[in-house]
Amino acid sequence: MKKDYYQKVALLGMLLIILFGFQKYTGKKENFSGVQFISENAPPLSDFDPNELDAQQWQSLGFSEKQAATILHYKELIGGKFISKAQLKKCYAIKAEKFEELNPYLMLPETTQEARVYKNQKQSLILSGKFNPDHISADRWIQMGFSEKQAEAILKYKKYLGGSFGSKEKLKECFIISEEHYRQLEPYLILPDKISGNSGPSNPYTVKTNIQYKSFDPNILDIAGWQSLGFTQNQAKVIVNYRDKNLKGNFKSPEDLKKCFVISAEKFEELEPYIKIDPTAFAVKQEKTDFSKTDLNAITFKQLLEFGLDEKSAGSMIGFRRKLGGFVNKQQILETYNIDKEQVEKLISICPLNATEVQKYTLLDAPEEWLKNHPYFKYSANKIIFYRISTPDEKKIWKLLKLKPEYETRMKLYLK
């Protein structure tokens, strides 16, 4: 009897230990699921490689400290590097909505299979002579032997660097270019080996020339005019774009010019004595937009800035509208990421919305590409394509999709 008693006590103890461990595990999981994204303070998004981010940088994208730590832990578990967007998407700390926001800016191949193709390609490149990769178009990269997607990725990476590779070292870091391909390219590259902090030929933002300076107004110089001051064509384009887009067409003071990142401190010191800005140039009155007659599906980036939106809000709104193919109702605009909701509420209370030109389909005839790229349909696209082949009945497809009511309501905005 004593033996049976002790056996039962031991068994009961083991069951209690297992039960306690299970509760502890599920408790941790539930606690994590309650973590919310801190997206309101996130900075404007631009192209980035998630492999280069530390915990603080993940937090700056709107993740909590705990989520950032989980993402980095997940990266270590998969070998220390994300090799595709599909792989990053599997990290449970990144919700579907957040991934949708980040996806256009991720500098990764779409799938792991594509990444393997990029990594394992061994074919010889067709190289005829030395060249500067900063001046190479997508067609030229393709002629060398890269695929169309690879060429696009290389140009996207160059844009991410500020419009110039700057050095062989930076070009080598482009994940699309395998070690084998880089070895073939390296002897033909007209670039310094590394970017130096000193003002010399190894600094991509300094052009060492003997220039006879004379007074100039930076508000009237075109690309050729900036090149005559010793800047490369790419640098000149950046300066003009910075003036016309960021500063709305005018440098109001030499300090504005100094803030342009392609102008080094040394170069600005050379230019400063010759800068003569006409204060009347930016005092010219411009015709104001009548926002009560401006369609929200046609309003431009410049008009949004004129209304009072900042660049982040205006860019997010225009970008989301483009992905949707147009807004169907004003509430969608308020759901856009990274916008100043107070300003946007004022905007939509004044501007009309014409949705008659927005393209709509049925679930049965919607093009596959449209389904896979539309923000409301992309996560159900493959299921829709499969179900409409096997079950060409729209009502039955909705039942098979088993979507949350709010997702179904959003999708039906773009269906006939």
Walkthrough of the structure:
InterPro entries: Endo/Exo/Phosphatase_dom_1, RuvA_2-like. This is Helix-hairpin-helix protein. Pfam families: HHH_3. The chain has 416 residues and is mostly helical. It folds into six domains: 1-33; 35-109, no CATH class; 121-188; 205-284, no CATH class; 291-350; 368-412, no CATH class. The chain has 22 helices and no strands. α7 (138-144) packs across α8 and α20 crosses α21 (394-401).
List segments where confidence is low: pLDDT < 50 over at least 5 consecutive residues.
28-43, 117-122, 197-209
Order of helices and strands: HHHHHHHHHHHHHHHHHHHHHH
Distance between the first and last residues' Cα? 77 Å
Number of domains: 6
DSSP helical segment count: 22
The class by helix and strand makeup works out as mainly alpha
Proportion of residues in extended strands? under 5%
Shape: globular
Summarize the biggest pleated sheet: none
Rg over CA atoms: 28 Å
